[in-house]
Amino acid sequence: MSNNADALDSLMQAARGGDQGAYRQFLAEATGRVRAMLARKIGNDSELEDVLQECLIALHEKRHTLDPDRPVGPWMYAIANYKLVDHWRKRGRSKVVLDDEADMAVDADSFAQVDIAALLSELPEAQAEAIRMTHIEGMTNKEAATRIGIGTSAMKLRVHRGMLRLKEIVEEQDQ
Amino acid sequence: MTDTQSLIDQLAQESALPARNPLSLFALPIIAVIALCAVGVVLAFSDPFLSVELYGWGPMLVKWGFSMSLLLLCAAALWILGKPGRRSRWAMAAVALPFVPVAALLAFELAIIGPNVAGETWAQCLTAMAVMSPLAFGGAVFAMRALAPTNLKRSGAVAGLFGGAVAMTAYAPFCPEIGMGYMVVFYCLPMLAMTLIGWLTGPKLLRW
């Protein structure tokens, strides 16, 4: 970690000295570090890349707030964390609201006449796995999240998105 | 090539050197609102430093000592809060420091002469605080938006306190009142109200 932080510092220093290649390397290194941080917090979800790109743009646009004599790491992670929280806040205000009870309270007959395995195969593997664990094996979101090593929020999101997609697929098949 | 990779390529085409000087971006709105409030009170009120003629420099120094130290500490705290990754707890503690001597002087006044919040010019004081505090708060918000605050409630609260400190600094020479009780009720409480407004509105106004 400290080596990576040092690498970021020296790359940024070189970049500020006019080395454009160093700036590209800095952004690439920062991408790796921020991606790892986001993956720990939200899992390897489809939204990870969106948040990551928002973080990169913010790092670039707010680079004037990095003092030359201070390490890059705390600055970079503070911005990444802020962007992640902001992303969650935006999502909270959008139509996509995580609702455990609604997602868990799917009527058992809803999918009685359909081939569950076939349906799940149409979902991204991460969402299918999340639904398998929570709706078929009966785990809670927290238990399922712990088993595969992601955050509970990330698990809720996977289940929620998976359930929405399943509903769409069933409705398409009914028409 | 992934979207993220192409984004990196796109960003890397620009210089790593910031195009803008953060200090000037931050300081300009701060200085502008201070100047605006100073000019405003000169145009709107008369008889500056009446309290100095009547009672000497003591009461004036107490007021300005409090408001100017608060103004400077708030500006420093805002600067730190606008830099991601900087620890801001000590800066938050520092902005509370000017209230300590005020509380001590108030306790002293209460012990000697009892509660004393009376003052003929209270309406004028409150009006000045009510007009200038939001104006200076706006300047602080504008200054902070040039930086990258990551704790928006805390930043908003300090911006609100800054607004109150600027208003008091500008208006204090025109205030003939000298009681500590008066100062607490008609200056400190409006400042704290502005701080609360800043704390509540910070997340909306400072989001970036």
Structure overview:
The complex is a heterodimer of chains A (175) and B (208). With 175 residues, chain A is mostly helical. Chain A folds into two domains: 2-93, Rna Polymerase Sigma Factor, Chain: A (Orthogonal Bundle); 100-174, Winged helix-like DNA-binding domain superfamily/Winged helix DNA-binding domain (Arc Repressor Mutant, subunit A). Chain A has helices at residues 2-16, 20-42, 47-61, 72-93, 100-104, 116-121, 125-136, 141-148, 152-174. Chain B is an all-alpha fold and 208 residues long. Chain B has one domain (55-205). Chain B has helices spanning 3-12, 22-44, 50-55, 58-81, 89-96, 99-113, 122-145, 152-171, 180-205. In chain B, α7 (122-145) packs parallel to α9 (180-205). The mean pLDDT of chain B is 93. The A-B interface holds A 12, 15-16, 18, 20, 22-24, 26-28, 31, 49, 52-53, 56-58, 60, 62-67, 70, 73-79, 81-82, 86 and B 2-4, 7-9, 11-22, 25, 82-86, 147-148, 150, 207-208.
Structure characteristics:
heterodimer; A: 175 residues; mainly alpha; Rna Polymerase Sigma Factor, Chain: A; 2 domains; 9 helices; B: 208 residues; 0% strand
Tell me the layout of helices and strands.
The complex is a heterodimer of chains A (175) and B (208).
Chain A: H1 2-16, H2 20-42, H3 47-61, H4 72-93, H5 100-104, H6 116-121, H7 125-136, H8 141-148, H9 152-174
Helix pairs in contact in A: 1-2, 2-3, 2-4, 3-4, 7-9, 8-9
Chain B: H1 3-12, H2 22-44, H3 50-55, H4 58-81, H5 89-96, H6 99-113, H7 122-145, H8 152-171, H9 180-205
The gist of it:
The complex is a heterodimer of chains A (175) and B (208). Chain A has 175 residues and is mainly alpha-helical.
